[in-house]
Design a protein that fits this description.
- The complex is a heterodimer of chains A (82) and B (214).
- Chain A has 82 residues and is mainly alpha-helical.
- In chain A, 59% of the residues lie in helices and 6% in strands.
- Chain A has one domain (10-81).
- In chain A, α1 (10-22) runs antiparallel to α2 (43-52) and α2 (43-52) crosses α3.
- Chain B is of the alpha/beta class.
- In chain B, 40% of the residues lie in helices and 21% in strands.
- In chain B, the strands form two sheets. A six-stranded mixed β-sheet of chain B has the order 2-1-3-6-7-9, sandwiched between helices. A two-stranded antiparallel sheet of chain B has the order 4-5.
- The radius of gyration of chain B is 16 Å and the shape is globular.
- Classes of the chains: A mainly alpha (82), B alpha/beta (214).
- The interface between A and B is large, with 32 and 39 residues.
Chain lengths: 82, 214
């Protein structure tokens, strides 16, 4: 039973892709989202999934928006100052 | 002496990491009075899990492996527990599933069918790792930041903490790691790792009796 996917705002998508690609995460650091990708993904592959808005891309978008919310709500500074 | 059933499949990169890191739980010197029933590798099968749950009646069940909203998987992604199929096997148990999204529906249904507490994740668990350390997962400091907070939860449960206390301790560990990667002194791009850690932390939930303990 697949959940209905919401279309992401194109500008928001651009911002997320920019954040991912400009972050300069070292090439040796990979990301796995359960078994969705079959193997750990590079930062470039992650950005490609976001561009395609496929299942992996949707999770990455949610993760990034969640992080931006945490920053906006001051959760990260709170953690840093705890 | 309480019994703890633990599943540790190791058929791909992610499960190999979980397999290696979950051994740290079994080997933890501070855990006493626990008999581990370790279903490792191909032994993490539905036949063995069902048999152990029925005959050995473990108080705590720790699942490591892939999953989704409806199921928890074992070796080669064989379904071990599935919503509306066999979740009653977890009746009266405290369960921690390090398994993508399984809290979302399966966890709720398991508690409805009598699981005392189900701790898991409402969305996929994200694991960052260092490709230069793939053959030695325990030396992978990036993966450690993801799997130590998870191990903290299991170890806390096994040391007698309640489900809520164990989850809180795990989240404190996540926060320490988030702080490491979101600080200005972190390496370039580290906030991508922080984002994944925040994701795992906020998606970890306790369903059922928050005070459940061994």
């Amino acid at each position: 039973m697949e959940e209905k996917k919401e279309k992401i705002d194109p500008e928001l998508k651009e911002i997320i892709i920019y954040r991912i690609l400009s972050s300069k995460l070292p090439e040796n650091i990979k990301m796995s989202i359960g078994d969705m990708s079959g193997r750990p993904m590079s930062i470039t592959e992650i950005a490609e999934h976001v561009e395609a808005e496929d299942d992996i891309g949707q999770i990455v978008i949610e993760m990034e928006l969640n992080y931006l919310r945490a920053l906006k709500e001051g959760i990260i500074p709170k953690i840093q100052n705890a | 002496m309480h019994k703890c059933l633990i599943t540790r499949p190791n058929h791909d990169k992610v499960t190999s990491y979980l397999h290696s890191w979950s051994k740290e739980i079994i080997d933890n010197k501070d855990i006493n009075e626990i008999q581990f029933l370790d279903l490792e590798g191909y032994n993490a099968s539905s036949e063995k899990v069902e048999s152990y749950l029925r005959k050995q009646n473990p108080r705590i069940v720790l699942f490591n492996g892939h999953g989704n909203n409806f199921e928890i998987c074992g070796f080669k992604d064989e379904t071990l527990i599935k919503a509306d199929k066999n979740e009653e096997l977890l009746k009266e148990k405290i369960v921690y599933a390090l398994s993508c999204s399984s809290a979302k529906i399966l966890g709720i249904k398991a508690v409805e069918k009598g699981t005392e507490a189900f701790i898991g994740y409402n969305n996929p668990f994200i694991l960052c790792s260092d490709s230069e350390r793939e053959t030695t997962p325990l030396k992978d400091n990036i993966a450690a930041s993801f799997l130590k907070p998870s191990n903290k939860l299991s170890i806390s449960l096994l040391k007698g903490n309640s489900a809520k206390e164990a989850s809180d301790k795990s989240k404190e560990e996540f926060k320490k790691e988030i702080m490491k990667y979101s600080s200005s002194s972190a390496f370039e791009g580290a906030d991508r790792i922080a984002a994944a850690l925040v994701w795992n932390m906020v998606n970890q939930v306790v369903i059922g009796n928050q005070d459940a303990r061994i």
